[in-house]
Design goal:
By secondary structure, this protein is of the alpha/beta class. The chain is about 30% helix and about 25% strand. The structure holds S-adenosylmethionine. S-adenosylmethionine binds next to helix 2 and helix 3.
Length: about 160
């Protein structure tokens, strides 16, 4: 598969899963956590599609497009393995994590802390969507939309 096709598939999967969560999932009360601001595209989509929810956003640096800069109090800069610890117990309704790199060695390091952190951030009955697998007791894996490769995006509910 060309890199262009792979990129388009990733963007489509993100949008379609975020829309499916908006349309088909009863999120509990609580904020949304966006793990990996990047350019701010998915933050922009979350902001438009989940109005009224606080969205707390994490990244090591602020490199988002100027139209997609989170409010100061909801932007957490630094290494998420450290900054995220403060948000364990926040009772998040939904965590979206897009910090996979495609480099198996780097992703393996991320997976030493991310799944546990996401479980701790979520409210009971909260949902997580992640580009990396979050195999962890307490997280039930749910199917992604039928047209999405099940190994491209991972969807979970906290019991
Ligand atoms: C793929 S981008 C996110 C793209 C975003 N979903 C969008 O739509 O623009 C991943 C982002 O996560 C950040 N990131 C990855 N691992 C991180 C870590 N361990 N701590 C802090 N930031 C991290 C990177 O700096 C990068 O901006």
């Amino acid at each position: 598969m060309s890199r262009l096709d792979s990129f388009i598939n990733r963007m489509t999967a993100q949008r379609d899963m975020l829309n499916a969560i908006r349309d088909r999932v009863a999120l509990p009360d609580g904020p949304i956590l966006e793990i990996g601001l990047g350019n701010g595209r998915t933050f922009s989509h979350l902001r438009e599609n989940f109005p009224g929810r606080r969205i707390v956003v994490f990244d090591r640096q602020m490199l988002a497009h100027k139209s997609s800069v989170p409010p100061e109090g909801d932007l957490v800069l630094g290494e998420i393995a450290e900054t995220g610890k403060t948000y364990i117990g926040i009772g998040a309704a939904f965590v979206h994590a897009d910090i996979g790199t495609g480099d198996p060695e780097k992703d393996a390091v991320t997976l030493t802390w991310l799944p546990q952190m996401v479980v701790g951030m979520l409210a009971s009955g909260g949902y997580a969507l992640s580009g990396l697998p979050l195999e962890m007791p307490g997280l039930e894996r749910l199917p992604v939309e039928a047209h999405i490769d099940p190994e491209r995006y991972y969807f979970y509910r906290k019991a």
